[in-house]
Amino acid sequence: MNTSIDKLFDVVAVKGHVCVGLDTCVDYVPAAERQNKTSAEAVLAFNKALVDVTFDVCACYKVQIAYYEEMGIDGLRTYSETLKYIRQKGSLVIADIKRGDITDTAARYAKAHFYGDFEADFVTINPYMGMDSIAPWLKEAVVLGKGAFVLMRTSNPGMRDFQQLAANNGKKLYDIVGDKLSGLAAEHHGKCGYGLLGAVVGCTERDEAAQIRKNHPDLFFLIPGYGAQGGGALDVTLLLRNGNGGVVNASRSIITAWKTPVNHGQKPVNNSFAAEAAREAVVKMRDEILGAL
Amino acid sequence: MNTSIDKLFDVVAVKGHVCVGLDTCVDYVPAAERQNKTSAEAVLAFNKALVDVTFDVCACYKVQIAYYEEMGIDGLRTYSETLKYIRQKGSLVIADIKRGDITDTAARYAKAHFYGDFEADFVTINPYMGMDSIAPWLKEAVVLGKGAFVLMRTSNPGMRDFQQLAANNGKKLYDIVGDKLSGLAAEHHGKCGYGLLGAVVGCTERDEAAQIRKNHPDLFFLIPGYGAQGGGALDVTLLLRNGNGGVVNASRSIITAWKTPVNHGQKPVNNSFAAEAAREAVVKMRDEILGAL
What fold is seen in the domain B4-292? Predict the structure, then answer.
């Protein structure tokens, strides 16, 4: 089976490392495109316009479900349609859901996000409840060839509160999580060698990056924190292995790139305009990272 | 303002400690009630029947969103309707969503679950990403008088993997989380004295229970693990304070009580039958806990 992780590995080699984050709220949609539409409708049309002109220059998409849950049932319909649209284009989508629950409940979540209305290629998972909360996801991933990224060391300042706590064996919590994931990767990996379950590792702490990659050569990383949060192309390269092994998420810097003052000339500020600006931002970021390798 | 935590404190004093978990999948609905209905419709009718006959003997309800996400958009409509129905009855509802994300995203989740289609009185939150992922929930809770329970020490076996790790200061991770929550409770609490943000603490580890209560007198606990997972009434009492300060969740033992072989007599096995069995299970559990105080 060609698993999601194999597909992602292959696409990174061709299209680079950029993961476009569709954390879309209606304020990000040009005003002209909000006329006579509900917020959920406007966001869906905007997302589709962005996907249309970025899918050939990005590795994958990450859709942050919180932005859609905020809009209630209608928002979740837009979430569902966004995932379907990305997959119809032949692109890969990461459902950024950060779910985590006891075994029986985790199995329900895995059904929810690997099948049906909300089917994605990858999900994100929160490990706080322990490995029996992760096992049901792995079980489905093995059957379906899907994948997941488990939160290991995130990019927000608050990650220091718990993730960087040193246990009495000297290891930090995030590294203990990583060790468990490497253990799973040894048994369940794609043809590319990376585990079906990867990890979320921010590119915001340069001094830990090389060690994290060295300790976990078998984990594919979903990398947040690029740009506004302080991570740069060099920080990313430290988390890669032979130039692959990770995708780098950016959301607002791409999907609101159209808001940056530019010389519009005669162009109307609509979804096409926003999509072209997004494409430029993706290409720039892709080339920054490729240039740093 | 009469906050959700004050209301919960007051209702426990009158109706006891039982939190009815509506972790409802369609297999829990009597076959006769599934005829000519979608799964989502059958679950909604079943939930309403249960609420109708239990709201006067339980403290509150907890609705586990995973069971509804599994059914996609239709399931989430049933989730929304279930929450509305409980609140229309004047009962309190805990949205068991275990969300957790970076600040901006957490603020979206807070909007999603404290307003609109998915409005609840309380939510559950996962602390792995740190206190800046919790702050947006607290901010909304203060404005709206809502509440939340943060995962501290859960009732599943896997909680030993990370929650019980000892940090190099000798404290366990769950206790470090609890200390942060107690810090917040000192500043933001209801008239009853308990913090707007409480904690999820399972009743499955008796030897830690008294110490947890002693260390965190200001935290109201949402207590899972009763019954099938091994916790009993005595374990619960160790987590209470003056007989209050916690609600005890039970889901399957209540909502599938109708499946236990009994002498049906001439009664048809329908939602009314299931609801009566649920009520009996709630009353029995309520009295077990009250009897152990």
Answer: TIM Barrel (3.20.20)
